[in-house]
Amino acid sequence: MESTNMSNLKYLPPLILLVALGLGAVLEASAQVGTCTSPLAESYLDINNVRARIFNNGNLFWRGSPHVYNVPKGGGAQAIFTSGIWIGGKVDGQLRVAAARYGSYHFWAGPLDDYGAPPADCADFDRLYKVSIDDIQDYESTGVTTPDLRDWPTGLGAPTYAPPGNGVDDDGDGEIDEAGETIFVMDQPLAQRVDRVIDLAGGERPAILGDQSIWWVMNDRGNERNGASSPPIGLEVHATAFAFRTGGDIGNATLYKYDFYYRGIWPFTDVHMAIFADPDLGNFQDDWVGSDTTLGVGYVWNSDNDDEGSDGYGSPPPAAGYDFLQGPIVPSPGDSAKVSTEWVQDFKNLKMTSFLFYQGGGGVTEDPSTASDHYNYMRGRWKDGKCITKGWYGRDFSEVCTAYIFPGDPGVSDDTCQYWSECNSDGVGTNNQAADRRFVMGTGPFMIEPGDFQQIAYGIVWARGTDNFDSVQKMKGASALAQAAYDNDFQFSAPAAPQVTVTAVDKGAILEWTNSPQSNNFLESYRIEDPFAREDNNIVEFEGYEVIQYSSALDQVGVTVAVYDVINGVARIVDGIQLIVDGLIEEEQVVVANGTDRGVQDFHVASGLTNYTTYHFGVQAYAQNYDSPGRKISRGPVTRVSVTPTRSTLEIAPAAIAAAEDFSSADFVANKDGIGDGFVIADIVNPARVKEGMYSVEFFEHEVTGKVLNSATVEEEGKVVDPIGAVEAIQKAGDIDAAVITYSVKRDDAVLFDGRS
After folding, report:
1. Are residues 198 and 113 in the same domain?
2. Which residues contact 642 (CB under 8 A, 6 or more apart)?
């Protein structure tokens, strides 16, 4: 975001600002509801272990049979029946609510114009745009697009990466050509941008979230409401559903982000937003629900260890939860709040501020019908405005008011079930009667000024343990993992791209690479904690290098021609996606790394090439956590080089040529007791770079701060070593957060490789 002031009216043109000062009522009157029909578009989020039916009417998963939130994908059980977004607050003291619940849909397709009016025909915008990373890569390699990629609606606000190096401040933040810059259009009049689609040929790309994104735009002024009747708010909503193609907990999760742009004239105050869910975990008749106020999670679980029936999960049953990943922001001096990937100073993100469950019916603790009913549920109050009270079903058991129903941890069995939960509803271990449950997770209050916006994000996680209690604990672990990954923008730093040099030789090429001291993989020391993994198995370490040959400079895929990896018993690494085959859960295995387990080297000799023909190569470092239940491989950027083999006119010493051709024994061995036990074994790789002289290797301890603790030097006259990447193996001590044993190489007094840098 370009400003820390969330009330800057930056999305409205000057004309509206002037009119708003004196003629706000006129504009408000001109922005009444339209005559749109309900949207009919739908799509499926289905890149990982979940298949979810997505709509653009404020509701998810159900719009008449079938309801689809299928996990594991391909199985017979559905984890959720339906879900929706609710939002309510006051405009000039008047309550206004938009809520999606079953057939009561309060959103229509398309944007609002500069005066807050809906489209004349919302059907023109009745579309969801589904794009995956595969679609983008296919376009880059073949030029073929999918319809949704081709028509990606940049002008409507669909997130779009600007062409790199175009010299334009595309996002309006005062910086030009920064990495990952997106195109900001929401400050432009709608008429100027409404038909603008992505310019793929010009270098623009969809800024999708995850490995697959579905994006849509909707508004709450398209027509009269058929439930929870209230005047429209004046909201334009940009929504994204996304998922990651991976295994483990993230592979069982889907994620959702909503941007609420307020097109009204008066401030929208006392706002509460909520996620409504009718979960129906397999067989809906034996469900319990609960909340975790620390994690910000509302969840559904099975009341016994057998989810019976044709719709059920069987035994053991899973648990599913909704996790508020990012709430709206409110002023908070000294704090900072996240909005998209930016941080706004002196604000904070709200988390889940209430959790309420209800059942079907017309009582004060049952189905809502009016705007006031929905608003009270969003605030964590019953329909009559009374607070939730601790105990039993949240009404009349005690006089202790609370905003959260069933916050007690079920533990691992009935004997450990905490009060207040469905398995201990009264403090003495009494179970509630299981049934069809619905719940509302609320956050608020907050405010949206005219022309401004608020953003929320949440995830749906699913986990299966050894029994119904263990499933809840594993679901909570999956929730914590999703939050950590979201906080890190679902990214972690991959191994840095190596520095590659290439030398043309007769009918061949020699590639050599190294990592600078500023690299996160200096001395092959890359080692990080993976936010996608659980704490007990989350270390990703450098594993090796892949050498890739490309058919042309335009080829983005290439073929791996060599792998040089650490000798550690890890070679072929597979990952997979869970599928249901003949009613059983199976995992389709995919090879994600195919090492040799023969050792790392920093060079590659390509032979058998044709002289005077240009060849294209790349070198990529990769890291692994091969036994992680989540992501197993992290690949860094590829460093590409081109080379044209040719007959050399250089005079090369015969001894150097002989040394380069003979890999049966080392050309240089250096070691020194007392400095680690480190040693260097080297062979001549590139004879054209060998010069006569005294070569020496200096060993020393090197901390990540660059401090040299002690050193020693070993010299061997008459031997030569190519210092730039020609080292076959380096044995080093420690890891990224400790001292390592490294070395420098000299020829006479000239430093050829400086390990102190």
Report:
1. yes
2. 502, 553, 614, 615, 616, 617
* pLDDT surpassing 60 at residue 579: no
Cα–Cα nearest to 196, from 108, 111, 258, 107: 111
Which segments of 70-132 does DSSP mark as H helices, in order?
Answer: none
List the structure tokens of 452: 């401004």
Residue 20: per-residue pLDDT: 37
| pTM of the full structure | 0.73
Name the CA dihedral angle for 377, 381, 384, 390, rounded to a multiple of 10 degrees. 130
Q: What CATH number does the domain containing 600 carry?
A: 2.60.40.10
What radius of gyration do the chain's Cα atoms show? Answer: 30
- What proportion of the chain, given as a percentage, has pLDDT over 70? 79
Region for 628 from its dihedrals, namely left if φ exceeds 0, alpha if ψ lies in -120 to 50, beta otherwise: beta
Confidence band for 223, pLDDT divided at 50, 70 and 90:
very high
Peptide bond into 163 cis (omega under 30): no
Q: Which domain holds residue 555?
A: 499-643
Q: In this structure, what token pair is assigned to residue 122?
A: 């919302």
Report the distance separating Cα 175 and Cα 86, nearest Å. 37
Residue from 239, 224, 17, 209 nearest 105 by CA? 224
Nearest Cα to Cα of residue 7 among 232, 348, 481, 329 = 329
What tens digit of pLDDT does each residue of 90-111 get? 999 999 999 988 877 899 999 9
Co-location of 23 and 158 in the same domain:
yes
Check the CA dihedral 127-213-7-374 and report its sign. Answer: positive
Residue 34's SS3 state is coil
My answer on whether 93 and 147 are in the same domain is: yes
Query: Is there a single domain that holds both residue 483 and residue 516?
Result: no
Domain total of the chain: 3
Task: DSSP for 149-164, please give it.
Answer: HHT--GGGT--EEPPT
Indicate whether 320 and 448 sit together in one domain. Answer: yes
Secondary structure, 3-state, 576-620: EEEEEECCEEEEEEEEEEECCCCCCCCEEEEECCCCCCCEEEEEE
**N- to C-terminal Cα distance for the chain?**
37
Per-chain mean pLDDT for the chain: 84
The predicted model gives 697-719 an average pLDDT of 47
- Does 8 fall in a domain? no
State how far the Cα of 238 lies from the Cα of 234, in Å rounded to an integer. Answer: 13
